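Lecture notes, unit on protein representations.

Consider one protein chain, 131 amino acids long.
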Amino acid sequence: MDRISNSPVEVGDWVKGKTKNGELIYGYIEAVNSLQGTVKIKVMDCDNEQIIGKTVETLKHWVKKLPMSTFDGEEPIKALIDLALLTKDESWFMELSTKLKSIRQVAKESEMQNASHPSFQNRLGTYGTRD
């Protein structure tokens, strides 16, 4: 099998990679065995549906650490809430629910502010306000 990455991974990192059977996996690191050069990954998505939700062990250099992302929109937060429910992580669920509520409140306030200061747009963008 080909080498995917040699970047260091730690417990909790989100990764994608492959198993010894060549299955493509996406999940997070549960354990790292530096002596054997392996990692245990909690599989969240895979082309073999039978291992989704299970922990698999694979070689460390067969996985690639995924970049950190910010999830500021409503849809990504909803997806993470689903993941928190799937993993039964109550504190994360509460944190995400609070963030979703905050996002919705900001959107509502922004919508109300725009309604109180109506503007019209031409083809080039906002041109002026209606008073």
